Amino acid sequence: MLARRIIPCLDCDLGVPGGRVVKGIEFKQIRYAGIPWELAGQYYQDGADEIVFLDITASHERRETMTSVIKETSRSVFVPLAVGGGISSVEQAREVFNAGADKITVNTSALKRPELISEISDRYGNQAVVLAIDAKRRYTEEEGRIIVQTEQGPCWFECSFYGGRQFTGIDAIAWANKAVSLGAGEILLTSMDRDGTYDGFDIPLTDAVAKKVKVPVIASGGCASPDHMLEVFQKTEASAALAASIFHFGEWNVGNVKAYLKERGVNVRI
Amino acid sequence: MTIVIVDYGMGNLFSIYNALDYVGGNPKIVRDPDGLDDADGIVVPGVGAFGSCMSQLSRFESSLLHSFREGVPMLGICVGMQVLFEESEESPGAKGLGWIGGKVVHLPDGVMIPQMGWNDLSIKRPVEMLDGISDGDMFYFVHSYYGQPKDRSVIAATTEYGVEVTAAVSKDNLFATQFHPEKSGAKGLRILQNFVRSIRC
Questions:
Q1: A108-127, pLDDT tens digit by residue?
Q2: How many domains, chain A?
Q3: Do residues B89 and B155 touch, judged by C-beta distance below 8 A?
Q4: Cβ atoms within 10 A of the Cβ of A43, count?
Q5: Is B94 strand, coil or helix?
Q6: What is the end-to-end Cα distance of chain B in Å, rounded?
């Protein structure tokens, strides 16, 4: 049986030489966390099942910095690496794969041009394409939306792009489903309502998407404790849980989070 | 000592190169069949469809068979394991190397396809390539098909994914894994280290 995966996420600011890992709060404030490949190496040693690098600066000239970060990381980190941020063509994806990435994540560029998903998956396989979704709850009643029941009332979820700075009007659950039919092999699902709040994952959102799509769903946004991971694994079919701050700022490490989950009956790799 | 990674144009070999380098295997990427002549060990990686892998690999076929018969330690990974079989449901009509009798079949309905993630091994034969590996150790898999050998005794390890899936086979100087040792953390590196050690002996 497949293990539930624990995935540390490195938000990378590549505007400085060598890059640095930062962490935003509710998609805004920034806190410095460390050097990308050093942190990746640490998380690998601690037992991370996979590592996600997101280029939050995502400008063309900085992609070279990202490829050097991945090259450096892949010399000593032997778990799958996923890379995202500003990838908008097969050619750009190829640069990242050639640097040692196993998967690429797409978000804004796929919302603007959904065929990008098929173009990359035709070439590299569905397993290599992760669709990242930043979803925000909307409690307004609108025709044709996929409604999810929450403790705060029924809502639908709206996709955001440009790192949470703009909204699309697109239904996140419907988009997840469409992206899978286009060839996305995995969904990285971030709750904008929870990201940076330390309130735990958005369970109704994660549950709804994991039930809807036939590919693995990575829950993201709001994780501040192993209890939050336990909750998302017990209450939803999420294949993986992604977190950043909990690992960056020394509150927990991947190893003791996994031990905590294992003791409580979650199938994780120790 | 030189370990040759066969580059037949299917996917990037960065990860396996780095992992072999990390365990002291002195890897070399070779794009030409002549490059197998002085190999002390050979790695056959593989991504993509069975049929396209075979059509790209065919120019290496006789050199590989020669090395296999000479007793050169060989390691197949993922589709590099599947091509050892006679044929695959993925690419009807395409002929595999056929060093292992049997067919590559699709994973069953009712499980997510591909199998992508960490799954645990059940060891069937304690071969040297699995030194340091225990029942229940987890490895990273990405695949939709798996090999079903006619002679079950070649199976070194299996994993459970809707059915019992062949995870590793061992035959003479040949060892092959459905999972990716180069992406399987310390346990995966251990297998690569065992491969390097089998060449040194």
A1: 999 999 999 999 999 888 99
A2: 1
A3: no
A4: 25
A5: coil
A6: 11
How many Cβ contacts (< 8 angstroms) between chains A and B?
Answer: 73
Fold of B3-200: Rossmann fold (3.40.50)
A92 found inside a domain: yes
Say if A36 is an interface residue toward chain B (CB within 8 Å): no
Q: Which residue range forms the structural domain that includes residue A106? A: 5-263
- Could you tell me if A97 lies within 8 Å of chain B, comparing CB atoms? yes
Among the partner residues A79, A98, A185, nearest to B183 by beta-carbon distance: A79
CB contact under 8 A, A98 and B182: no
- ipTM of the modeled complex: 0.95
Q: Return the residue matching tokens 């032997």.
A: A78
Closest C-alpha to A212, from A260, A146, A129: A146
Tell me if chain A has a CB within 8 Å of the CB of B142.
yes
> What is residue A245's predicted lDDT score, i.e. its pLDDT?
87
Mark whether B106 is an active-site residue.
Answer: no
Q: Which of A55, A134, A171, A193 is catalytic?
A: A134
Q: What is the pLDDT of residues A172-187, one digit of tens each?
A: 999 999 999 999 999 9
Torsions phi, psi for B146 (to 5 deg): -150, 155
Quick check: A250 pLDDT over 80? no
Q: Which amino acid is it at B22?
A: Y
Confidence at B101, pLDDT banded by 50, 70, 90: very high
Contact A127 B138 (CB under 8 A): no
Tell me whether B65 touches chain A (CB under 8 Å).
no
Question: Given pLDDT bands bounded at 50, 70 and 90, which one contains residue A68?
Answer: very high
A125–B112 CB contact, under 8 Å: no
| Residue ranges covered by each domain of chain B | 3-200
Q: Is residue A270 part of a domain?
A: no
List CB contacts of A156: < 8 A, sequence separation 6 or more: A137, A138, A142, A145, A146, A147, A148, A171, A173
Give one DSSP letter per residue of B9-42, joined into a string.
SSS--HHHHHHHHHTT--EEEE-SGGGGTT-SEE
Q: Is residue A29 pLDDT above 80, yes or no?
A: no
CATH of the domain at A167: 3.20.20.70
pLDDT, mean of residues A3-12: 95
Cβ within 8 Å, pair A78-B118 = no
